[in-house]
Amino acid sequence: MTRTAFLLVAVAALAGLVAFTAPSSGHAADEAAPIFGIKIPPGYRDWKLISVAHEAGNLNDLRAILGNDLAIKAYRDGKLPFPDGTIIARLAWGYVPSGENNKVFGRAQSFVAGTATNVQFMVKDSRKYAATGGWGFAQFKDGKPADEALLKTCFACHEPVKARDLVFTQYAP
Amino acid sequence: MTRTAFLLVAVAALAGLVAFTAPSSGHAADEAAPIFGIKIPPGYRDWKLISVAHEAGNLNDLRAILGNDLAIKAYRDGKLPFPDGTIIARLAWGYVPSGENNKVFGRAQSFVAGTATNVQFMVKDSRKYAATGGWGFAQFKDGKPADEALLKTCFACHEPVKARDLVFTQYAP
What we know:
Strand content of chain A: 25-35%
Mean pLDDT of chain A: 87
Oligomer: homodimer
Distance between the termini of chain A: 60 Å
Radius of gyration of chain A: 19 Å
Low-confidence stretches of chain A: 1-28
Shape of chain A: globular
Largest interface: A-B, 43 and 43 residues
């Protein structure tokens, strides 16, 4: 093995180790999503819960919507629009029947979170994202950002909830 | 109005005000659940997310499982048994179809959290709760604890997951 090859293997091994030991606080990916230039916010997996949801159909997921402190405060105060700096994170996992739980309940009724599908972010910056209602949009799957074509659809879909500052999710008490 | 009646009205108004302004950090109820003597842990609504689930059937809810810092650390470290002081909270809300979301998706597929149904807690204290695997169990609805008969069923139902220290929910990455 040449010295260069050895170094490459060592770097790859190290990268794998880092990826393996740091999954608890979200992906450490540095790649920014197109159009809005959003990176995965560090520590978003630790944010407080806004609400939960289930999308059936093709999405077939269970989701949790988390918010940074600015988001949570705005929700709890019932104040709109959300202030600049607000970030809302939507995590989603496969919708998986739980045989273990069903056995205990004595019937097939229980669905739990499976593998993570993707994570989306809405970032409020009323100046930077003025053209899209003050929000930037991003989606990542395994740390890789979604492409431009997908992100171009976000704003139009959120417009029906303009009265709630383009945010669908309501706070679950 | 007599002075006593006035005072009663004033106290009732004040109580209403307090109840109205403090919903964000969970119920402020002081009543302990039977058997295990567990009160609602202050600030549990701010805890980090462990996972989400959907129970169909009679429960018909969407749920979020949150944990205090000891719970989250144990999950992320993959360490069992959970240490004394661990508290796991299970929040649940009605499973409500979202007409608003369905309109945007163009099909009936979206279910969101409705009214809160009840909240459950598992509290680890290996000495105090030695007779039930080291866990105390509690359930509250609108701040009122569930009765003894219900809480007596908790431990037996959790026994099938003894290998995971009696905890059903697994961490959603």
